[in-house]
Amino acid sequence: MIENPLSTSPTGFAVLECFHIAGFALAIGMTALLDFRLLGLGLQRQSPAQIARAFEWWTFGGLVIAVFSGLLIFSTDPDMYYLNWSFLVKMGCLVSAIIFNYTIHKRAVFRAWAPGSARIVACVSLVLWVSVIFGGIFIAVVRTGLT
Amino acid sequence: MLLQFLIWLENLTLFSGLRSSAYVYPVVLALHLTAISLFGAMIVATDLRLLGWVLSGSSTADVIAQLRWPKRIGFLLAGTCGFLLFASKAEEYFYNPFFRAKVLLFLLVAIHALVFRRSVYTDPSPESPIAKVSASLSLVLWLAILCAGRGIGYVAGRPGMHYR
């Protein structure tokens, strides 16, 4: 049987977690910057579309780093994650957040939706992404795994 | 002296309660990470503008001015949660090499702010090389703080702590 090298190296795992945090902080924080703009806060002298265009590749880059480091973290203990309800909730929120971001959220930003609808879109986006962070933290709290 | 103060601090009802709570502690941790995301992205956005890589249609001064207060609020939120986490295990953190590194890095951030405050942040001259140096150093310092912060959790707890 081949041992997953990440399972035996605490340093490797820790470095991976740093990538994971830096990646999601970039992706979620920049999405939040846009969401706060939709709520009328922050970079108010730029249009939401201008902010989105400036940061969309940075957001995407952060997301790619977070997802790939996340897959590697998952690979160290797949059955624990699979049986962890917080992980499952996190994945549900993550998939919803990504789909929402590249469909409705994108349309609200680039087609300059009216403030009322844009605010609702911003709130949904913020709630989904913050739920992903909470789901991630609570994996360690509710962890049981195979006995 | 310092250690005695930290032992007193960690045994205040608020912090000993936080230390032993199964759910409040992780909630504070999750809020800390949420605030880090908000604050971190604003730092990156400002630094990318200083480097001239994004929002080149807007002036550096405009981006800095608009993000000044949101950044302060983000830092306050992350700092408050961070302090709660620290204070509930103050004695352990005192011995933690990653926590010590993090404190040292915050001192460097303060020095960075003092050095570049006038030339870059209050009175930014467009596209000056000093702005780019400041932005690069800022990115490196905050990334190092993030890694040091994650490192804190990897140091095993010490025996003989004066938790009550």
Question: What is the element layout, followed by pairings?
Answer:
The complex is a heterodimer of chains A (147) and B (164).
Chain A lengths: L4 H4 L1 H29 L9 H28 L2 H5 L2 H26 L4 H25 L8
Helix pairs in contact in A: 2-3, 2-6, 5-6
Chain B lengths: L1 H9 L2 H8 L3 H28 L8 H29 L1 H6 L1 H26 L6 H24 L12
Helix pairs in contact in B: 2-4, 3-4, 3-7, 6-7
Account of the protein in words:
The complex is a heterodimer of chains A (147) and B (164). Chain A has one domain (9-139). Helices cover 80% and strands 0% of the residues of chain A. Chain A contains 6 helices and no strands. Chain B has one domain (2-152). Helix content of chain B is 79%, strand content 0%. Chain B is built from 7 helices and no strands. The model of chain B has no long low-confidence stretch (mean pLDDT 93). The chains are: A mainly alpha (147), B mainly alpha (164). The A-B interface holds A 10, 14, 17-18, 21-22, 24-26, 28-30, 32-33, 36, 41-46, 50-51, 54-55, 58, 130, 133-134, 136-138, 140-141 and B 22-23, 26-27, 29-30, 33-34, 36-42, 44-45, 48, 54-55, 57-58, 62-63, 66-67, 70, 143, 146-147, 150-151, 154.
